[in-house]
Amino acid sequence: MKFPGRRQHRHYFPVDNKNPLTNQVNPSSNATQNYIVGIDQVLVDIEAKVDQAFLDEFDLHRGMSQVISDEVTQRLYQRLKDESLINYEFAGGTIGNTMHNYSVLADDRSVLLGVMSKDIHVGDYAYRFISNTSSRVDLNYLQSVDGPIGRCFTLIDDTGERTFGINAGLINRLHPDSIDESLIAGASALVISSYLMRTQPGDTMTEAAVKAVKCANAAGVPVVLTLGTRFLIEEEPEFWRDFVHKYVNILTMNEEEALAITGIEDPLLAANKCLDWVDMVICTAGKDGLYLAGYVDEVFKRESEYPLLSGEIHEFNRYEYSRPMLLNDCKEPMRIYTHSAPYMGGPESIKNTNGAGDAALAAILHDLSANVYHKNTVANSSKHEQPALTYSSLSQMSKYANRASYEVLVQHSPRLSRGLPEREDSLDQAYWAQ
Ligand SMILES: Nc1ncnc2c1ncn2[C@@H]1O[C@H](COP(=O)(O)OP(=O)(O)OP(=O)(O)O)[C@@H](O)[C@H]1O
Ligand SMILES: O=c1[nH]cnc2c1ncn2[C@@H]1O[C@H](CO)[C@@H](O)[C@H]1O
Predict the structure, then answer these.
(1) pTM higher than 0.90, yes or no?
(2) For residue 165, which ligand has an atom nearest its CA?
(3) What is the pLDDT of residue 353?
(4) Which residue intervals are annotated with compositional bias (Basic residues) in the record (predicted)?
(5) Which residues approach ligand 1 with their CB closer than 6 A?
(6) Is 65 close to ligand 2, i.e. is its CB under 6 Å away?
(7) Of the candidates 104, 180, 107, 117, the residue with the CA atom closest to the CA atom of residue 147
(8) Is 14 part of a structural domain of the chain?
(9) Would residue 320 count as lying in a domain?
(10) ipTM metric
C-alpha cells in the first residue's frame, strides 16, 4: 500500500529526506510526533486445539472470553502440557496485537500502555511478550508491577471457533497515575477495548482507561473502541451504548458484537444505528467481509465508480469514494457506507481467524495516522481543505483492512511478521486505484 509515512519503499538508506513539494528537509520532530496510543491488558496467548468435552471439563463457554481462577489455570495448563496440546505461546491482547500490527504496517511508532512484570527472566511470559512485540511499539510507558502479566488460553475447536480463558495476573493494576496526559494529548488516536472494563474489586484499570479517554476527548484526539467479545456487551448493552455515545469516535466490532450493542442482526443496519452515537464504524463480518460507515460533509462527497449495491439500505455505497469526517466537522452531514468482500474471496485454507479483526483495525489506524503525517509535513496540500479523519476513502480503506485480515488468516499468530507489499502481483492496480 502506497502511503505517506515513514516507510521507505525504494531506499533502504534514504538518500534524500527532503519534501518534494516544499524542497524543505522534513523536520524529524514532526515525524516523531505522529504516534498512536493503545491501552491493554498485557497478555500472552497460549494456543491449543481442543474439543467440546475439554471445554466442558473446565466449565468454559464456547466462543466466550472468560476470566478463570488460578486453580482452574493450573489444572488447564497441566492438561495441555501433559497431552502436548499447545501449538504456541505468543504475545497477544487485542490492543497489543493492534499496536504491533499498526507498527508493522506503518513502520512507525505506537505506544502501548499497560503493566509489565518488574522481574523478567529469559523464557518467562513477560520476556515472551516483549520479544514477540515489534521494536516500533514503544514499551517505555508500561507500568511495572510486582508479579505476573496475564495468560490467555486460546482454545480452538474443530470448527475454528475460539474460546478464551483469561488468567489475569496483575493485568488490571494499571494506575491512573501511569497515564501521561501529554502523551495522550499528542497522539493521533487513542485505542481501547471493552475488556478494560472487566475488572475485580481493587483493580484500577477501568479508572486509568477512563482518565485516558477523557483526556483524549478534551484534546480532540479520536477515541477508538473495539468491543472485544459479544458476551461482555450482552451483559450491559445500555451501559455500552451510553459509553460509546459519550466518549467514542470510532467503534470497531464484529457482527455478533454489533447485534449485542444495537439489537440489529444485519451488519449494515447495525453499523448505521451506531452512527447515531459515533463518527465512524468498522463492522467485520467474517466470511462476508467488512462494512464501514461514517459521515461526510455534503460538499466533500465523492461518488463511487463501482456498481451500486443495495442491501437493507438502497444503493448504500453510492458515496463510498468519500473520505470520512467527524460529525462535528460537517456543516451538512450525510451518512456514507461501504462493503468489501474478503480479499481474493478469502484464503483457500484458513489457519486461524484469531486476530483477523485486530488486523483490520490496524490497517485503518495506519490510514488515519498517514493523514496526520501528511498534514504535518504538507500542511498546505489541497487534500487538507477537507478536514477528513483519514487519508483514503471509505472504499479504499475497507480493501486495505480486508487485505491485512487476509494475512492473519493464512498464519497461526494474530500478529503480522512483516508489512504488506507496496504492489500486489496478484492484483490489478485498479484494485487499489481511485
Ligand atoms: N471465513 C472467512 N473467509 C474469508 N475471510 C474471512 C473469514 N473470516 C474472517 N475473514 C476476514 O477477516 C476479517 C475479520 O474477520 P472477523 O469478522 O472474523 O473478525 P473478528 O471476529 O473481529 O476477529 P478477532 O476478534 O479474532 O480479531 C473479515 O472482514 C474478512 O475480511
Ligand atoms: O480479556 C481480554 N483482554 C485483552 N485481550 C483479550 C482478552 N480476551 C481475549 N483477548 C485477545 O483477543 C485477541 C484476538 O482478538 C487474542 O490474541 C487474545 O489475546
Answers:
(1) yes
(2) 2
(3) 82
(4) 1-12
(5) 254, 284-287, 289-290, 342, 346, 350, 353-358, 360, 402, 405, 409
(6) yes
(7) 117
(8) no
(9) yes
(10) 0.96
Was 202 annotated as part of a binding site? no
The phi and psi torsions of 29 (rounded to 5 degrees) equal -60, -35
Distance of CA 329 from the midpoint of ligand 1 (Å)? 31
What residues make up the domain containing 126? 34-42+93-148+169-431
Would you say 96 is a known binding-site residue? yes
Is the distance from the beta carbon of residue 290 to the nearest atom of ligand 2 less than 6 Å?
no
Q: Assess if residue 105 is contained within a domain.
A: yes
- Residues 230-240, mean pLDDT to the nearest whole number: 96
pLDDT tens for residues 407-430? 999 888 899 998 888 766 555 444
Q: Which atom of ligand 1 is nearest to the CA of 341?
A: 31
**What CATH number does residue 321 fall under?**
3.40.1190.20
Give the closest ligand to the alpha carbon of residue 402: 1
Q: What is the percentage of the chain residues whose pLDDT exceeds 90?
A: 81
How far CA 296 is from CA of 11, 82, 117, 267, 293, in Å, comes to 37, 56, 45, 20, 10
Position 159 in a domain: no
Stated as kind and residue range, the H or E segment containing 117 is strand 115-117
Residues 308, 357: Cα–Cα separation, whole Å: 26
Task: Point out the ligand nearest to the CA of residue 407.
Answer: 1
